[in-house]
Amino acid sequence: MRDYLEFEKPIREIEEKIEKLSAAASSGKASSQNDIRKLRAKLAQVEHDLYKNLTPWQRTQLARHPQRPSTLDYIGELTRDFLEFHGDRVFGDDRAIVGGFARFNDRPIMIIGHQKGKTLKERMQRNFGMPNPEGYRKALRLMKLAEKFNRPIMTFIDTPGAYPGIGAEERGQAEAIAHNLFVMSRLTVPILSVVIGEGGSGGALALGVADRILMLEHSVYSVISPEGCAAILWDNPEKIPDAASSLKMTADDLAELGVIDQIVSEPLGGAHREPRAVYDQVGKALTNQLFELLDVHQAGQLIMQRDQKYRKIGAVTGHLS
Question: Deepest of 38, 77, 218, 247, by most Cβ within 10 A of its Cβ?
């Protein structure tokens, strides 16, 4: 069953008509067959016009689509011999983050990512992809392990943000994220990050200090959600689409600003429409980027390039007095 987003209502209406006519056509009515052909042509045009002109808010909704491929989907399709690790050796295991050793193109790597879950039960178990501090400390433990064994790191980003609950704050949420940022900036192995869905705030950035950052075409990456931004600036939910536009959170915006390194295209309608095509695209992009990073043989040079990458982001205008 396909889940339709609100802005996809015109597509749903046409597809429902096609289904009804297809049922009638089973009795061999020629008129139904002609109507179906016309509707399919109309559907193709409507889809093309809609998905080629998506607003930032519509892209955000696609990035959050419940059927969108998750970290574990990519692990299952792109790697083999995945060995998942659990726990942060301090407090417990956070199921909102998964990670472990795997083989990518026969090369041993460490792979880590947010996991939202698919069913309601799994989403609750995964805390809807919002990690607690122990999740980020687990990720950090795995990154250090990767450095110890000289294995490249791949991270998959898909979270609305770090969990903001009282318990998370008491256990040091801000410190856990900050520590990840610091350590990732100095790791001596290549780091690749892919924003596969929603990249929200520091909860995403804690896995995103990478040598190469890739984004799926309809994913988003921002300092705050459009809902949070609209609430803070205007206290008006009707301003959510305006907030999404102002945040410059789409892949196109971030590529233009130099925040990300590559956009990975998606099938018409989003990654959930043809997931195997997306796995193939992401696999090729990661292979090419990793090949370039492995050419950097000296750890000091890798760290220096990473440092320069982030120093170049942004611009300063005006004069200092």
Answer: 218
- Reading phi first (left if > 0) and then psi (alpha if -120 to 50, else beta), residue 258 is in left
Which tens digit of pLDDT belongs to each residue from 237-246? 999 999 999 9
pLDDT per position as a tens digit, 74-115: 999 999 999 999 999 999 999 999 999 999 999 999 999 999
Alpha carbons 294 and 299: distance in angstroms, whole number: 10
Check if the beta carbon of residue 197 is closer than 8 Å to that of residue 203. no
Do 78 and 262 touch, CB atoms closer than 8 A? no
CB 160 within 8 A of CB 203: yes
User: How big is the chain, counted in residues?
Assistant: 321
Alpha helices in the chain (DSSP H): 9-25, 30-51, 56-63, 71-78, 120-125, 133-148, 166-170, 173-184, 201-205, 226-233, 240-246, 251-257, 275-294, 299-311
More confident position, 258 or 314: 258
- Name the residue among 287, 269, 142, 294 with its Cα closest to residue 218: 269
Nearest to 220 by CA among 68, 78, 111, 100: 68
Q: 167-215, pLDDT tens digit by residue?
A: 999 999 999 999 999 999 999 999 999 999 999 989 999 999 999 999 9
Predicted TM-score of the model (pTM): 0.90
pLDDT bucket at 303, cuts 50 / 70 / 90: very high
Residue whose pair of structure tokens reads 């040079």 in the numeric block? 301
Q: Is the pLDDT of residue 27 over 80?
A: no
By DSSP bridging, strand 97-104 and strand 80-84 are antiparallel
Distance in angstroms (rounded) separating the CA atoms of residues 11 and 57:
18
Q: Where are the domains of the chain?
A: 6-53, 60-311
Q: Regarding the domain with residue range 60-311, which homologous superfamily does it belong to in the CATH classification?
A: 2-enoyl-CoA Hydratase; Chain A, domain 1 (3.90.226.10)
Look up residue 56 and give its two tokens: 């930032």
